[in-house]
Write a structure and sequence with these properties.
single chain, about 100 residues, mainly alpha
């Protein structure tokens, strides 16, 4: 990658948390990586990076609601933040889970 640093920042803390900002930035980095891999004639890797970007961006509204919606694991009940919880893992989102979460 060309060392692009994506940054979504907002002065109003009620807008999005730092966790949500980090997820958005991560998703944009994967999207950029997918574009670069496609330009380098590596379609297989590009598809994987693109799907990773899509999955991360789908998790953004869930993390904005509450971080536990995208985590799973034995220690999750005790976690203060999913970044501090070594027992928590990001969930794979199924279509059912996504549609159940929508209002």
């Amino acid at each position: 990658m060309k060392n692009k640093n994506y940054s979504v920042e907002c002065d109003d803390e009620s807008f999005v948390s730092k966790d949500v900002q980090a997820l958005i930035n991560n998703g944009l980095e994967f999207l950029d990586k997918a574009r670069e891999e496609l330009e380098a004639s590596k379609p297989k890797f590009s598809i994987v990076s693109f799907w990773t970007a899509v999955e991360i961006m789908l998790k953004v509204p869930l993390v904005h609601e509450h971080w536990s919606l995208v985590c799973s694991g034995r220690k999750i009940e005790k976690a203060v933040s999913y970044r501090d919880n070594e027992g928590a893992k990001l969930k794979i989102i199924s279509e059912e889970m996504l549609f159940d979460a929508l209002p």
